[in-house]
Fold:
Amino acid sequence: MKKSKWIWNYGDFELYHTQKMMNRREVRGMYYPPMWRVDGVRQNLFVYKIATLESSEKMRVYSNGGDVSVTVNGVRFDPKKPITLDVGKNFIKVQTYKPTGLPALYIDGDTFASDESWSVGSYGGLDCHVGTNENFVSRSDDPEVFPFKYKKISPVACENVRGGTLFDFGRETFGLLHIENKKPDRRGVCPVVYGESREEALDKKNAVITDVFDKSLIGQTYPSRACRYVFVADKDVSLTLDYEYLPLKKRGQFKTTDKKLNKILDVCAYTLHLNTRECFLDGIKRDRWVWGGDAYQSFFVNYYLFNDFDSVRRTVISLLGGEPFTQFTNTIPDYTFLIIKGVYEYYLHSGDRDFLEFVYNKFESIFRLIDKRLDSRGFFVGGRGDWIFVDWADTAKSGIVCAEQVALCAAYSSAAKCAAALGHDGGVYEKKAEKLRELINRFFWREELGAYVDCIDRDDRVNVVTRHANIWALLFDVADGRQVKKIAECVIKNDKIPAITTPYFEYFELDAMCRIGEYKYVVDMIRSYWGGMIDLGATTIWEEYDPKIENVVDHYAMYGAKYGKSLCHAWGASPIYLFGRYALGVYPTGVGYSTFSVEPRDIGVGDFSGRVPIGEDGGYVDVSFDGEKFTISTNRDGGTLIYGGKKIALSRGEKTEILA
Amino acid sequence: MKKSKWIWNYGDFELYHTQKMMNRREVRGMYYPPMWRVDGVRQNLFVYKIATLESSEKMRVYSNGGDVSVTVNGVRFDPKKPITLDVGKNFIKVQTYKPTGLPALYIDGDTFASDESWSVGSYGGLDCHVGTNENFVSRSDDPEVFPFKYKKISPVACENVRGGTLFDFGRETFGLLHIENKKPDRRGVCPVVYGESREEALDKKNAVITDVFDKSLIGQTYPSRACRYVFVADKDVSLTLDYEYLPLKKRGQFKTTDKKLNKILDVCAYTLHLNTRECFLDGIKRDRWVWGGDAYQSFFVNYYLFNDFDSVRRTVISLLGGEPFTQFTNTIPDYTFLIIKGVYEYYLHSGDRDFLEFVYNKFESIFRLIDKRLDSRGFFVGGRGDWIFVDWADTAKSGIVCAEQVALCAAYSSAAKCAAALGHDGGVYEKKAEKLRELINRFFWREELGAYVDCIDRDDRVNVVTRHANIWALLFDVADGRQVKKIAECVIKNDKIPAITTPYFEYFELDAMCRIGEYKYVVDMIRSYWGGMIDLGATTIWEEYDPKIENVVDHYAMYGAKYGKSLCHAWGASPIYLFGRYALGVYPTGVGYSTFSVEPRDIGVGDFSGRVPIGEDGGYVDVSFDGEKFTISTNRDGGTLIYGGKKIALSRGEKTEILA
Structure:
């Protein structure tokens, strides 16, 4: 018999697990619900397949607990028994209803083994093929259990302090704590305090994650959580942790002769790995949610590290949710725009046409909401409940905001590209993009400032220049070549324009710096900003870092909470992307890396070597630099080396050298 | 403290219970899934209330199992403890997440006791007040249990036959069977066969509902099902049934001196009562589903019998489902059109503005699907997956079908009326209605035939006249006064036009007959058609009845199955509506019966008396006829007696007499 897989409504596996994840945030023992709509799955599943058999065969249908119905050519069969299919055309419909959880089916058979060749009956929507996942291919697999792996780890140190025990796992980690009681059968309970920092673990009142240990028990296991330190207010306990992680392979790397830089990149990789769970989280302690802008950046780091497409898909599905689209991603319009941009970029990296089609079908509903927010000229203006974010910086938060228009323009362009890739008519998106680009340049660009201004309908912002709008205009192709040069001089390299303060927007700024050739600035920033955290003992990259803060504990505060800052924040992993994209210089030019460029650069970190994973199945490009020449090799066709104004076709399996 | 109620997302109580109901159909022990999309609930619930307190008060929040979050003016409180609210403005948000079932909240308090004064946060949709139900007002009530009542009943006869026992409950019923084993500790199993007829119960192979009794058990209880007879293939058992029903009060009645007619009406009332469950079912055995057209008729019978608004609401919510609307009701466009018409009529009967607003907000999505099915002129043409039904009769099932346009025109008009009632701009619906009415009259009306033709784009149907389109055109105000007279003569009273064969369309025909004053025809039909079934021993009204069938068992066949016909079918209850609407002559003219007409008629059944329930809370109109005069009394203001060309204002609490 052919190998079968569990099958479900395309996208529902992702919604099922991310809905649970979004509802898992807690603060000091209390449930902390998401502030936006979180969608779940359909409890009815209807799949079908039509095939013509040349010889009779058997099939058997299993569900994961739901009632099942099977018809073959309109005739109802007992789903509890093997079904014999006759020669000729067989139109098989299987339905299941499971009032809770994720309805799924598993069908043993040859022609009719359950896999992507089955279609989902969408009841009037657009039928597509069923959803599957390579982790659920055996009948005993349970699609309702997320495919994490576990590894038991022990603290590297423990210390008796303040009448209890402080355990240190040596670095930030994530998992299920087990506390063993050395003196069970006592009475009473005592606090358990998780800390990303030693200070947090010892500060029960202000720590974000706390729990309770019952001294009458032999031991106790807790839900999976983030920590480096754990304080138990008892001296007679020991503990271990089941490290919970996705078994992702580090497919990309970048090494230099500079140990500090290598260390930074290792910490970046570990930070992203911890945050790569049901979705790309923003931070594993706070807030354990997925946010569009943060995730957008994780996609890029991921392409140069794990190149795991499943994680991108899950994240996009969670962020766009079900229909109708009534609310922007995390309530933030710019996040929705970035995710739409990210969808096309995902397609370029993965070549995953099925997913593109699935998401494209949601665009009608998404752009209907966007249309409701446009003024008569076509500018995006915020509506009720919209959070115009851009950055935690002094950018306009209401009115006709430049950065918002630029991001929307990128979303229109990306939607047009998605349409073109699928063979649909994307003319409406193309026109909207062109019109908005023209409007932005007409109303926001100020030649005398060499910059786009922040906001055009608020007197206090009409002459204000921020880095944000200009960086996005540069990166998202709203500015032309001449404008890019102006922006570089008048904004990006202009110290009078307020500096970027968040790693979130630092990602975009460093990307822009690389685009305009300012590699030294980028490398210096990575060494000082990222290196600065590591000098302070960071084992993962923080949500924010201010070198001016003197007292270590003051680093941990954010959002008005003493330990409100996430010390393991995905957006800090961007150096991996920057080195892969601009030093190794590898990026796709054709769908699914069918063609790609390798544009290596001496960015001033000395000798380096590295690998970029490309395409779906183990493709890579290796690039090394020894101070004199670059050496490139790849196991894929379609590569072009670009260096010093020359373009050289790369041959699969052969080394290509070029003098620097 | 103020009385609290369980609260949930408005509409979710209804979706939760009707989703389960829709998935409860079975055939010979196998699950038989719905053929359309069935929507469930949101697992996240977010409610809020803002109020200004003049003195401090306490509140306490309970969920039905989900995690809870409470903030007061943005400050998070422990939801497990009582919360003290200070004087002044309090903005309270409560959220819960329950991954299965129906998330619900119950809040003890004074100002903040949970009730309809709380709003649902819709995450970008339109906020509305929370859903409640008068059956769930105590903290120990469980909103996940549908509020059926139960009464133990015993068979009226039992008979040893074919090696087993046949039990007869004396009439069609519905409930949970308990089988008691007189000789437990035996081995093996034996069949249990449910029958609406004796023949079905004794025909295990062809019976629709079957089960298995385990002889080793003392007894066994089964899921709730329809039956009159039960056959157990064992001699040593006895049984009872927990009759499962909604405790609805018969608020309307109609009595004549003709016992046969009274009996027919009793059977009609019992038939509707059995079918009034989570929704108005079509039939309690087969198929235990809710269908738009069937339900539309049940609404009208209900207004003259139970006047239960909850049942209408549940049915409409189930039939329109969640958004986006991707598929017509039961896949049938005319059913969607009827339900939209039914929504305005519900508002007219109930005055329930909240529900109207809730449903009106779905219209945009519904009419978007309809728009996709319009040709360039504006005619409705079927799309993929649409079932152009109209009736089980020889009417066109594809092309530009007259009846379909007429029903759509009625839907447009009703949507316009809904908009007007809510103060919204319904101009677009009004225009569409006018345009379509003009198109229908231009393209379908044939003056020389005095009728609308069936279908205009199929050569085989272009000259065909059916009763269906003409009856709807008459009832739904597409035909003008002159056309109505023509239709009456040339179609309705024309024996050459094929007769209506289903009680479904007979409802519309008899309604039309009453409109044109053909009361004798109506009464004769009720006596012969309905009376005919009862003469054959029917204890509930059948799905269909053909007086020409000679062999009793042949009555039970339908849809190619020996016992495929439902013997308890809601659409058979229409005489209750017809007598209430045309003999008692009571109908609303203002919202919620704020004004109403009483237009009594001597319809040729001799003396009669009856009551029509009006409005929300115990209002009624009593009408009696003694052969010489009509006597009318009502406990509500707003009534107008219309008789013999005169209009007389009715006085609440006083009898008004008028000579016939």
